[in-house]
Known about the structure:
Layout: H1 6-14, E1 18-23, H2 29-36, E2 41-45, H3 53-65, E3 69-73, H4 79-86, E4 92-95, H5 101-109, H6 124-130, E5 139-144, H7 147-151, H8 153-159, E6 164-167, H9 169-175, H10 191-207, E7 210-212, E8 220-225, H11 226-245
Parallel strand pairs: 1-2, 1-8, 2-3, 3-4, 4-5, 5-6, 6-7
Amino acid sequence: MTAVGGRYAEAQAEGRMAFGVFCALDGLAVSHLFASVGYDFVILDLQHAAFTWPDVENACFRIRSTGAAVFLRTASTEPAEVNLALDLPVDGLILPNVASFDQAAAAVAQTKFPPVGERSLGNERHDTIWQAYSSPDPLVGLLVEHRGAVAEIERILAELPIDFVWIGLHDLAASYGIDPHAVVIGGEMPEALAAAIDRTRTAARATGVRYWAGEPGADATIAGVDARIVRQAAIDALARVRERFGGS
């Protein structure tokens, strides 16, 4: 297994913003394609996408072969989910649905081997194939999408070994009782949501935790979701050929 972080780690070391893409389309080729064109990192979504575990494992190898880092957004922070995800050749995890310091601490504990944490060493298959248990610790990201996490964000980032934070904008909005469909990325934010984002950003800066966002000065940003990018590219290609050759 190669050094953790790939081009994402290189970007952070160089002091430049890292560029990533969020992948939810099933199969192997799309995520591999995004990695191959130069994205610094690729996030595979285990929460809402339709990946099988063998697909995820193979996608991880293919993505990392390009030099891009691969992160998994886990479906939950349950120990079985986190341990299984960390048996794969990944650079890090993004932990969702954390609503308190205690939940964050319990989730992060699953990402570290004893005596520091509670991560299982039980699967010899992965250690035999790619030395999973002698590789560097994966990066740990927190997806801030609950008002309870915002309420304790200073303590979470100061006391737990979290490497980066990322705002889950629509779920966070819903947590505050704000219609998530009315929240537009890059648009004017409702006051409570803007305050939550500012508090998270400030806590990250104060503790040296990387901050992911689509704004100047962020440490990393997401260019988009593969499904939307591919759909728009297909629409554009069809429009061009229609314009050139006619038809409707």
